[in-house]
Write a structure and sequence with these properties.
mainly alpha; 6 helices
Length: about 130
């Protein structure tokens, strides 16, 4: 993954997690990965000004990641692993389609990304 892309997405997901909006955007599947991302960033930048300034100025954190990742391979690999998983989850969230087919005696609903209940899914309508 390009370093610029990695840093941008890592900071974006970090901000979502810290602000509490991550689960709304990515869903419960991302919770563990978001926590891991925050842990990787906090662990690596512990006690440094970049992490202290991150909540007010995300650009500082992004620049720190760009500066650090080329020389710290372990950090970069951990970050790439977590960000790749989050991108995959985000892609799956956005690719859901809902198809409804009328068969005359009822309807078939195909909603592959739905993890909840489809209201009225077991009802038949007669005309």
């Amino acid at each position: 993954m390009l370093l610029e892309t990695l840093a941008t997405k890592a900071v974006e997901y970090f901000a979502l997690q810290v602000s509490g909006g991550a689960l709304q955007k990515l869903g419960a599947d991302a919770k563990d990965y978001l926590q891991k991302l925050v842990g990787v960033i906090y662990t690596h930048f512990a006690g440094r000004k970049e992490i202290q300034q991150a909540t007010q100025n995300l650009g500082v954190l992004k620049e720190a990641i760009i500066a650090e990742a080329p020389t710290n391979i372990t950090f970069r690999e951990e970050l790439e692993d977590v960000v790749s998983k989050l991108l995959e989850i985000e892609g799956n969230q956005n690719s859901g389609t809902v198809n409804q087919i009328s068969t005359g005696s009822g309807s078939n609903i195909n909603a592959p990304q739905n993890t909840g209940y489809i209201a009225g899914g077991d009802q038949y309508f007669r005309g």
